[in-house]
């Protein structure tokens, strides 16, 4: 592949911690072997998430200073509203403090008890919102084919079958998450979105986007879909938005800022209902739980994020990092997208059965070996806890995600991670399995306490 580099230079820097081997061991023990419980002061390279971890540009920092903190009708809201309207084509723009607030408010305005929401995949907080309403969230992802360029698509045959069946009358919305996290940040194709639009029209159902990574999906369309080659990433994004009735997004991702969310809609009546609900929990509808300066920084971030140079760098970084990790001996999930690289821990650690949490084991080893923090997406997160001492039902895959915060780490930081990975890959059979000693009944991965299994079994 052609050489690439960061399309920016660095204006403000932040020192990073280098805990030594003893400190890393002590820290992990004190954290109950759970990386969510490790303080950031003990992390050298933090690839836990790309959410809210972006580095802002000089233009965004200067926008903060001009933020208008008026309670109602602030200038910063007008800027944010204008950028969102131009980007999405939706007239109704409602800010919220982050993605889950936006989705809770919007879904609460279109779904009721007994209703059904269909999706390529509901993000976990989206599913929680649907279920808290008493509605049902059904995921219909395409079956993962590693070679497809559009692994984020919805299974159209399954969607049509569901809508045509008698229970299809309970469906109130189809949600397309762009890009689709659950399938490794893979994009959704324009063909798929167009077909969803047609099916929604035929059945009189609302079509909504979870647009948290809209810019990355748009860029991957310009690269992988012959029909989109002539479009700029911004035009591709506008095309995506034009197919749906509205969207919500976590702006902690492609807003390239540290906080924020949004609802954007065509329908003025639904927007009115959303604003009524928003006032109860987020505040007045022109600030939605954000400071005026946050809205100003987001308006700038949403302008910068579709820069083709920036998006090319994003995609090339993930591909290059994937190649490096593969050369180091890590099994990488292909194709890479933009926001993360995923490692197949089950393939690297075949001596660990799912009940010994191979993805957790690999994540903890990356910390012990080099204070690198990543997230586990295996049986700790997606397994079904066994009752009465039964073993857990394993997750479908044992993945570890190395997320790429936007504009934060350079190539040499990622080379450091590759070196740490290479050391682990030299003797993977020495990586111990883990067992859970304490867990909550839901979302156990955030707070669980674990211990390594040192004796063989
Ligand atoms: C992050 C995310 C959300 C939730 O947003 P928060 O800002 O974390 O509340 C919803 N959907 C997708 C696809 C996301 O990535």
Automatic annotation (TrEMBL):
InterPro entries: ArAA_b-elim_lyase/Thr_aldolase (IPR001597), PyrdxlP-dep_Trfase (IPR015424), PyrdxlP-dep_Trfase_major (IPR015421), PyrdxlP-dep_Trfase_small (IPR015422). The keyword NADP does not apply. Coiled coil: none annotated. The keyword Membrane does not apply. It comes from the Bacteria. SUPFAM superfamilies: PLP-dependent transferases (SSF53383). One of its GO terms (molecular function) is lyase activity. GO terms for biological process: amino acid metabolic process. Transmembrane segments: none annotated. Belongs to the beta-eliminating lyase family. NCBIfam families: PRK13238.1 (NF009709). This is Tyrosine phenol-lyase.
